[in-house]
């Protein structure tokens, strides 16, 4: 238990995919409230300074460290070299900030950022050749990460080609465990209709990063019935913090607590901060995790 660290993502304060959500919230407010709520780590948002010295000073004053950051990949649709350049810049930035894992997700054909495309109906499905480009490209990125002592963690995600249990299985079967690890996101799995405990149990030894996200049941039903896009569902409140929705979170938490997992638990719940006060929900999540796990 002592090896697990607790972070929170800035997406509850300022949303990278929907910049209008939280546009009024500053970087300083975000990281100060993270620390006030009792977290020791953060992921990176669009308002964070990109100069490692500047960011490190701001975080150290608040007792925070960088857990990781999102990195978009286009291995299925663009030449590898384009993804490689962006990845190396992110790798080196995160290495300078002391982060040991790099969150990656394939965005080729993704509809997650399209407000007018239903997230289920428009979901892409990779061809065999695209799967080959994805898996071989991920292994090459894993090798580049290893050069600096880091590892990549793949984020299965709504509206992308790696969303379902079958797709996660194919990705894991097609990649070297020494080069490609998995990020477990409880909210994305339940949104998609998958079982987080099944994925956590099946790939416990390959999971190197965990996003703790909950789902509001009525909003999930509405997203399906009204064929909402991913971003519309977010604005409608489909996501919330751990302990505030329908996800059976405690068995998943217990699985990692009882294992040799030594990575981060990251609270991540993209919400409209005008409707869900970020500090209030950060405290709510912190209290839930403390009561459920003792962390």
Supply the helix-strand structural class.
alpha/beta
How many domains would you count in the coordinates? 1
Straight-line N-to-C gap: 7 Å
Element order: H for helix, E for strand: EHEHEEHEHEHEHHEEHHEHEH
Instruction: Tell me the Rg in angstroms.
Output: 18 Å
Descriptive notes:
With 295 residues, this protein is of the alpha/beta class. It has 11 helices and 11 strands. The protein has helices at 27-36, 52-60, 80-96, 128-146, 165-173, 186-192, 196-202, 217-225, 230-235, 249-257, 278-293; strands at 5-8, 41-43, 65-68, 70-73, 101-106, 151-155, 180-185, 207-212, 214-215, 239-240, 264-267. The strands form 2 sheets. It has a 9-stranded parallel β-sheet. Strands 9-10 form a two-stranded antiparallel ribbon. The model has no long low-confidence stretch (mean pLDDT 97).
Helix-strand blueprint:
Elements: E1 5-8, H1 27-36, E2 41-43, H2 52-60, E3 65-68, E4 70-73, H3 80-96, E5 101-106, H4 128-146, E6 151-155, H5 165-173, E7 180-185, H6 186-192, H7 196-202, E8 207-212, E9 214-215, H8 217-225, H9 230-235, E10 239-240, H10 249-257, E11 264-267, H11 278-293
Parallel strand pairs: 1-2, 1-11, 2-3, 4-5, 5-6, 6-7, 7-8, 8-11
Antiparallel strand pairs: 9-10
Helix pairs in contact: 3-4, 7-10
Features:
TIM Barrel; two-stranded antiparallel sheet; 295 residues; alpha/beta; single chain
What's this, in brief?
With 295 residues, the protein is α/β, with parallel strands linked by helices. It has helices at 27-36, 52-60, 80-96, 128-146, 165-173, 186-192, 196-202, 217-225, 230-235, 249-257, 278-293, and strands at 5-8, 41-43, 65-68, 70-73, 101-106, 151-155, 180-185, 207-212, 214-215, 239-240, 264-267.
């Amino acid at each position: 238990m002592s090896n697990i660290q607790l972070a929170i993502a800035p997406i509850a304060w300022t949303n990278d995919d929907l910049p209008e959500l939280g546009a009024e919230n500053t970087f300083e407010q975000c990281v100060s409230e993270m620390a006030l709520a009792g977290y020791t780590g953060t992921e990176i948002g669009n308002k964070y300074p990109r100069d490692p010295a500047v960011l490190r000073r701001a975080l150290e004053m608040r007792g925070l460290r960088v857990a990781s950051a999102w990195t978009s990949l286009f291995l299925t649709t663009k030449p590898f070299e384009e993804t490689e350049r962006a990845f190396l810049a992110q790798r080196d930035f995160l290495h300078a900030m002391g982060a040991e894992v790099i969150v990656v997700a394939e965005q080729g054909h993704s509809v997650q950022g399209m407000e007018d495309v239903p997230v289920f109906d428009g979901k892409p499905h990779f061809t065999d050749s695209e799967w080959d480009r994805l898996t071989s490209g991920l292994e090459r990125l894993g090798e580049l990460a290893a050069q600096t002592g880091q590892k990549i963690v793949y984020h299965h995600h709504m509206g992308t080609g790696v969303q379902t249990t079958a797709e996660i299985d194919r990705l894991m079967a097609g990649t070297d465990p020494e080069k490609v690890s998995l990020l477990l996101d409880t909210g994305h799995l339940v949104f998609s209709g998958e079982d987080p405990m099944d994925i956590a149990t099946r790939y416990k030894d390959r999971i190197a990063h965990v996003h703790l996200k909950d789902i509001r049941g009525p909003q999930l039903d509405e997203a399906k019935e009204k064929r909402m896009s991913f971003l519309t569902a977010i604005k409608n409140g489909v996501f919330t913090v751990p302990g505030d929705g329908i996800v059976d979170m405690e068995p998943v938490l217990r699985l990692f607590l009882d294992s040799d997992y030594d990575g981060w638990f990251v609270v991540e719940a993209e919400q409209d901060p005008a409707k869900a006060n970020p500090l209030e929900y950060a405290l709510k999540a912190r209290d839930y995790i403390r009561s459920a796990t003792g962390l």
